[in-house]
């Protein structure tokens, strides 16, 4: 496991962002001797992160790092790498180290902080931060460093993070159903797939793109998807596959939904995941507007970009 940085030097702007003040305020504090700093050869101020954290505590300023004491440098490094460099490995490494110690509360707080920041798109948050973590968790289980129960705990933490982020948007008077002309989607996981973390990401993504989503959750029979689509006149159906699902499962689902298809209520069908097996020619044929198998939130966002309301942004 790679080492995490413990010594971090911040610019005046980074310090101002951490302390939620204007950069000129940081410069004034430095000039008044209230905030210790070093100077680069080029004459630029550098404030050590531990000094900025200590200053925030003296002043009673709550920062994004407050919940992570005494691991503020680790949290800052992980968040900065993700937000500024697009590198999520430090984030995953830190989370795994906390998970191995049973510190799921800090994991939840760290991911919530990243999801709130708005520095990365929501698709990236789901694909790189969450899915990337779960891939590392799966490998840790294979290596014998995590138990199945540990994997379940981390999965539930990610679900809690997503639901918290959704609730916070609702609390801010964001209403995903306010637009009466919004397109309608049905989202859930195919029967046999008890894990709905991926489909939950799709639910939140679509809502952020302005869709009205009927969320069915895990382990849904294929014919129930068809019945809900008919009853809600949905324009899009997203079905999340599990690791055990094969191309045969997809073909059978396509055939069943095709037999239920009402041409007066057309919709697009999207499967999420990577089914096992070798697909036969024509196994995705059907009466639908389109049938796709996509492996990421980013692919789905690109696929439905033409249907995005002009006022909605996925962030």
Alpha-carbon Rg, integer: 23 Å
Q: SSE order, as H and E?
A: EHHEEHHHHHHEHEHEHEEH
How much strand content do the residues show? 5-15%
> What is the spatial order of strands in the main beta sheet?
5-4-6-7-8
Number of helices: 12
Instruction: Give me the count of strands.
Output: 8
**Envelope shape:** elongated
Helix content: 40-55%
- Terminal Cα span: 31 Å
Mean pLDDT: 90
Biggest sheet layout: 5 strands, parallel
Account of the 3D structure:
The protein is α/β, with parallel strands linked by helices and 315 residues long. 50% of the residues lie in helices and 12% in strands. The protein has twelve helices and eight strands. It has helices at 12-19, 23-31, 49-59, 72-85, 89-100, 104-117, 122-142, 148-171, 197-208, 222-232, 247-260, 297-303, and strands at residues 9-10, 38-39, 45-48, 184-190, 212-220, 236-240, 268-272, 290-294. The strands form two sheets. A five-stranded parallel β-sheet has the order 5-4-6-7-8, with helices on both faces. A three-stranded antiparallel β-sheet has the order 1-3-2. Helix 9 (197-208) links the parallel strand 4 (184-190) and strand 5 (212-220). Helix 6 (104-117) packs parallel to helix 8 (148-171) and helix 7 packs antiparallel against helix 8 (148-171). It is elongated, with a radius of gyration of 23 Å. The two termini are 31 Å apart. 37% of the residues are buried.
